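Fresh eyes needed here. Have a critical look at this protein's tokenised backbone.
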Amino acid sequence: MFGRVFRFGKRDFSSLSEQEILALAISSEEDDARIYKAYADGLREQFPQSAKVFDDMAEEENQHRRRLIEQHRARFGETIPLIRREHVRGYYDRKPDWLVRPLGLEKVRAMAEEMEAQAYRFYIEAAKRTTDAGTRKLLGDLAMAEKGHESLAQRLGAKHTPEDVQEQERQTERRQFILTYVQPGLAGLMDGSVSTLAPIFAAAFATQDTWQTFLVGLSASVGAGISMGFTEAAHDDGVLSGRGSPLKRGLASGIMTALGGLGHALPYLIPEFWTATSVAAVIVFIELWAIAWIQNRYMETPFLRAAFQVVLGGSLVFAAGVLIGNA
């Protein structure tokens, strides 16, 4: 444990022999090829053309690995020392693909460019520490190759993903984001904001006790959030509908439902009743307009129509709560 925190047992890069530098380069190229292949596999179903980009990048790294192995065989024989990036102090880290999922197109392309830039810096420093002319030339050539490959994702993208395909993939990615996060979150926000209006304001006007009203609002919001989250996650596994992970959809729906209700419950922590009620009413107005904006922004609902529907519905529920509370 302490070794991980303080990096005990690691070698300084400056202490590596030329054989160890070659071994480190070989293992690094192997890891990068695996990462690019994993990116390709993660993108293949939804973005097949971009997946081909990362297939080519994986093959490029494998070519580098083969050249390095040939150089090691010529100088040091068949046995390659086991040395990896985690054995060297200060060496750059790589995140496996499962740590950076979900894989978005722009995210993986940016990470690919960063990987190539890091590899370039490594080969430049490695070349400085070698005296053999052949090894130094190979490392320098690989540095230049990696430098040129900082934009490899874009260059390969021009080959495999012309502008019309890229636009189609961007639309597919946006659609998936909407199905997985926006729709469940919007449904939750609407349910949490609107459905809790009646109980919260009914309790407020019936008791005129801010603490009791807050407790009613808290229980209604949390309960609705849990209910909506489980319902969203349980009713569709996303396999046939293509709506994505049920866990992500459930979290989006549940969290936004709870936030929608808590928005106008929290003001009742203010002890003075009319001040708390005024603040809550303002927050309700903001919530309803936020819902209308999201519908317009992501669901392409005309703003005025969305605003009319949401504000009208919310006003009716708000009025029902006030009337019931004053009954």
About this structure: The CA atoms of residues 7 and 89 lie 7 Å apart. DSSP finds twelve helices and two strands in the chain. The longest strand covers residues 11-12.
